[in-house]
Specification:
With 371 residues, the protein is α/β, with parallel strands linked by helices. It has 18 helices and 12 strands. The strands form 2 sheets. A 9-stranded mixed sheet has the order 1-2-6-5-4-3-7-8-9, sandwiched between helices. Strands 10-12-11 form a 3-stranded antiparallel sheet. Helix 9 links the parallel strand 4 and strand 5. It comes from Pelomonas baiyunensis.
């Protein structure tokens, strides 16, 4: 784009909302022509509260323009606008496609086969393991993994794709000149170093605003061919993403969990509403176009309980057998195993250090997958 085109797009997106901007573009044909529309046309297109902001350029626009040109001079940084020939068709077909996308990384990934993986910011240990394992297997099968760079399930999904030497797309709710949460700065850097993509519809300098994160979820849902919910409470952003995926005509998948776990209730609600229950990545692939590669064909299959199907696996420890896969207390384990508290505590500590179980709040323990 030329500097004048960039200036016009920034002024338009910073002045009015997406719906109003689309009405203006339909009238004028280009962002530059929008600002040459007669007053009567503007009056028809915009409600009174938006007219003043539209007619008067934002005070911060010159600074944003300068910042944008500096940012675009960096390798891998680009802008994508509605109407660009490489605008992703899946996103274009949604109810509210973004007018402007800020991209850092290979923009062609936006149109690649992809699956969204979303879930709790505070998953159980097994939930984090599931997100990583499913993302790894799906990335090996040729899908880019789309998520939101949040803590918990999002981060595990991105890491799973990267560990498989696959691609992942992180759709964020701030400007791309910052990483939120700060704890994921290394993950964002790794993502870029391995040829994956950061995406935002928000201009540089956009701070952390709670309202922006549910809004960005429509991009996560719109880019992907399907949406997998790993763990989620009934009232959560993940269920918003799942609803948006349904509205966009996408497949929705959910991993079941313990009936006693609050983190599983959102997934169970989705399953009752028609989402597909999945226990392995293969269940997801069965519902989507086959893109399996030799890598996934030879990779061990991991199910949602974390059990490998490979032959010759060692029998689980007696304590692991007694635990099952639900959170369990020390007293319950003592009753199941007949062991003393001292012996059982020592063994639980050993298993925890080996990464085979996780210690949860309330003095509960839960088995987790290895590898």
């Amino acid at each position: 784009m030329t500097p004048d085109e960039i200036a016009a797009w920034l002024r338009l997106t910073e002045s009015v909302g997406n719906a109003a901007a689309r009405r203006l573009l339909a009238m004028a044909g280009s962002p530059q022509a929008v600002f040459e529309l007669p007053a009567e046309a503007v009056h028809q297109a915009l409600p009174p509260k938006q007219r003043a902001g539209f007619l008067r350029p934002p005070e911060h626009l010159p600074e944003l323009l300068e910042q944008t040109h500096r940012w675009l001079a960096q390798p891998g940084c680009s802008l994508m606008v509605l109407g660009d020939p490489d605008y992703p068709p899946r996103l274009l077909a949604t109810a509210d496609p973004p007018l402007l996308l800020w991209l850092q990384g290979p923009r062609e990934l936006l149109s690649a086969p992809s699956i969204a993986i979303v879930g709790s910011r505070s998953p159980t240990a097994q939930g984090g393991d599931n997100a990583h394992a499913f993302a790894r297997s799906l990335a090996q099968a040729g899908y880019a993994i789309v998520s939101g760079l949040a803590l918990g399930v999002d981060a595990a999904a991105h890491e799973g794709a990267l560990d498989a030497q696959g691609h992942t797309i992180a759709v964020v709710g701030t400007g791309l000149d910052q990483v939120y949460p700060r704890r994921n700065e290394k993950l964002a850097a790794r993502l870029l170093s391995q040829g994956s993509l950061l995406v935002s519809e928000y201009a540089l300098g956009m701070p952390v605003l709670p309202a922006n994160f549910p809004k960005r979820n429509r991009i996560i849902a719109g880019l992907a061919q399907g949406c997998l919910v790993v763990e989620a409470a009934v009232q959560s952003g993940s269920l918003i993403t799942a609803r948006l995926a349904v509205e966009a005509g996408r497949e929705v998948f959910a991993i079941p969990g313990s009936i006693h776990s609050p983190q599983a209730r959102g997934c169970h609600a989705l399953i009752r509403q028609g989402a597909k229950l999945v226990e392995s990545a293969e269940h997801v692939l069965e519902e989507l176009p086959a893109l399996a590669t030799a890598a996934v064909a030879h990779a061990p299959s991991v199910d949602a309980n974390g059990e490998a199907d490979a032959t010759g696996a060692q029998a689980p420890h007696a304590v692991l057998e007694a635990m099952g896969f639900d959170p369990v207390s020390l007293d319950a384990l003592m009753a199941r195993t007949g062991w003393s508290a001292a012996d059982l505590s020592a063994t639980l500590l050993e298993l925890e250090l080996d990464g085979e179980i996780a210690r949860l709040a309330g003095q509960l323990f839960q088995r987790r997958r290895q590898g």
